[in-house]
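The methods section describes the discrete structure representation at length, but only in general terms. An entry of this sort, consisting of the sequence and the corresponding backbone structure tokens, reads as follows:
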Amino acid sequence: MPRFYCPAPLAIGATISLPDEAAHHLFVLRQAAGDSITLFNGEGGSYVATLTTVGKKQVEAEVKLFLPGETELPYALTLAQALPEASKMDWIIEKSIELGAGTIQPLAAQRCVVKLSAERAEKKQAHWQGIIVSASEQCGRNRLAHLSPLMDVGKWLAQQDMHKRILLTPRAELSLADWSRHHPPQAVTLMVGPEGGFSEAEEDLAIRQGVLALSMGPRILRTETAGLAAIAMLNAAWGGM
């Protein structure tokens, strides 16, 4: 059953017009009146709807049934990812959404090759939001992850954070795997550096700000691997897979 994000109030019995992108997708798939689809608006649960009108420019559906099920992790998880090269951030966001991340925090670090102006950052923000939507549609999540604005590492570290912040670094002696086995599920933020990692100054600043430094084991992981592996590791240790 095709599944779409529809940022509108949804209620049983209501007939709604689908967003342009969803309407185009259904038209291309040759869906017809009477076919069923699944809709969610990010407020929890999903809805089964029946297509009533399928046209090239407009698709309408009548909401028939509410499904209360959720697929969220039993703990809040934020991925604070320093900007990697090329399109790696797209991949990281997509896969972290599939794995259950609730917040994505892009970071500008000293070793980031990519430098975004305010205008480019705004465009990237809109692009990444689209990736969050499409990944949520695909993986069955009914709530959209929050995408925070790009921030400098130092400014972000200076903020107060109720979550346990974890810096993933090969310099650490204790591993995330060992730490998670001896601590209960809790809200966490995982910090992942760019290619080459965070600088020593950034890591030292993080530790002074109370961030816990943990390693990912004996092997050095790429920036596009480290965060995803860490989320999967916590999923396995604390539940959510």
Remarks:
- The chain has a mean pLDDT of 94.
- The first helix runs from residue 20 to 28.
- Residues 99 and 232 are 7 Å apart (CA to CA).
